[in-house]
């Protein structure tokens, strides 16, 4: 049949028919593909998010969830803004942010420090200008208040004559307890710098540490673009449990309880202070099954962190060795490396 079709296209009558279709809008003639070039294999596909992609999802991705989850998402969307930074009228970075407070006509927007820093340098760009785009499309001028390059956090203040919706990060740590058998479903939100441009992506919390060099970062399976950097991560109960970053194969995020303590340090000290505990630890659930099997035989049901490195020898750490499992700090149980860091920060206050 394919051979007959090819012969027909090569004939005078076939050529006349091709000319007819070419000259009759809106149709266009497409020659048949030889059977030798047809394969049953699907084309190779690799998901590669790009900075130039204007969206990483739509609200429709939540249609398979309950209406309550979608409603929580729409409520939180009122606090999600688009951000753009410029230096000497040259575009620097575009991302998302969350209004966490509005007091006396000033809104406090939390986002990623990538908005204000020089490329590949932990320095704030000179002659910086920040635009804050509200859901309605209204654009306000923002001013940088605080920056921490270790956690990659930035606080932008924005003045507004009208009340701006705000929502704080959740201080609850139980959602990150991988020993609990509850849902780990999450939603990542972001916004472009234009009117009604809400972007969302759903996924799950995954029990491993980010590839970035920060042991406090956790990971979700939500797939976003760089436009979603600095946007909030929400659980299915409507709580903001973290702030998103970007990676090609996963979405790292700073847990909400760490964000709260960083904001508290900004208010109290003007910067984030990190006491040196001298340990590098990893969430126990990240270990290979062969290692976990040995641990389970001796300590069934154990939950905590495993020591990877003792960086600063000291009298209080003299008994701690690589491979040790830590389950409590000052009698407080935990299940992730992020919780260890916040307990250290709390001990400083």
Automatic annotation (TrEMBL):
According to the record, the residues making up region (Disordered) are: 1-22
Cite the Pfam families for this sequence: Trypsin_2 (PF13365)
Which InterPro entries does this chain map to?
A: PDZ_sf, Peptidase_S1_PA
Name the UniProt record assigns to this protein: PDZ domain-containing protein
Question: Which source organism does the UniProt entry give?
Answer: Aegilops tauschii subsp. strangulata (Goatgrass)
Source taxonomy: Eukaryota, Viridiplantae, Streptophyta, Embryophyta, Tracheophyta
């Amino acid at each position: 049949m394919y051979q007959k079709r090819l012969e027909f296209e090569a004939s005078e009558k076939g050529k006349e028919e091709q000319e007819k279709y070419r000259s009759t809008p809106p149709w266009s003639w497409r020659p048949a593909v030889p059977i030798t070039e047809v394969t049953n294999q699907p084309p190779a596909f690799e998901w590669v998010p790009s900075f130039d992609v204007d969206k990483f999802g739509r609200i429709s991705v939540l249609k398979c969830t309950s209406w309550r989850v979608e409603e929580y998402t729409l409520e939180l969307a009122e606090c999600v803004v688009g951000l753009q930074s410029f230096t000497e009228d040259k575009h620097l970075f575009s991302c998302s942010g969350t209004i966490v407070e509005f007091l006396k006509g000033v809104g406090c927007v939390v986002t990623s420090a990538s908005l204000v820093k020089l490329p590949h340098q932990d320095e704030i760009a000179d002659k910086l200008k920040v635009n804050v785009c509200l859901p309605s499309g209204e654009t306000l001028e923002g001013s940088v208040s605080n920056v921490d390059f270790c956690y990659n956090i930035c606080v932008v203040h924005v003045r507004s004559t009208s009340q701006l919706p705000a929502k704080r990060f959740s201080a609850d740590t139980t959602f990150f307890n991988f020993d609990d058998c509850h849902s780990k479903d999450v939603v990542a939100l972001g916004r472009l710098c234009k009117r009604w441009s809400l972007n969302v992506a759903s996924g799950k919390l995954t029990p491993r540490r980010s590839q970035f060099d920060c042991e406090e970062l956790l990971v979700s399976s939500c797939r976003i673009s760089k436009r979603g950097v600095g946007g909030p991560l929400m659980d299915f109960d409507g709580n903001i449990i973290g702030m998103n970053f970007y990676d090609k194969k996963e979405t790292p995020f700073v847990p909400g309880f760490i964000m709260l303590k960083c904001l508290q340090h900004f208010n109290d000290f003007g910067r984030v202070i990190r006491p040196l505990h001298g340990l590098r630890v990893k969430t126990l659930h990240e270990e290979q099954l062969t290692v976990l099997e040995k641990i389970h035989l001796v300590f069934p049901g154990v939950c905590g962190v495993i020591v990877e490195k003792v960086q600063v020898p000291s009298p209080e750490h003299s008994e701690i060795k690589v491979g040790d499992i830590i389950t409590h700090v000052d009698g407080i149980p935990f299940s992730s490396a992020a919780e260890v860091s916040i307990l250290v920060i709390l001990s400083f206050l």
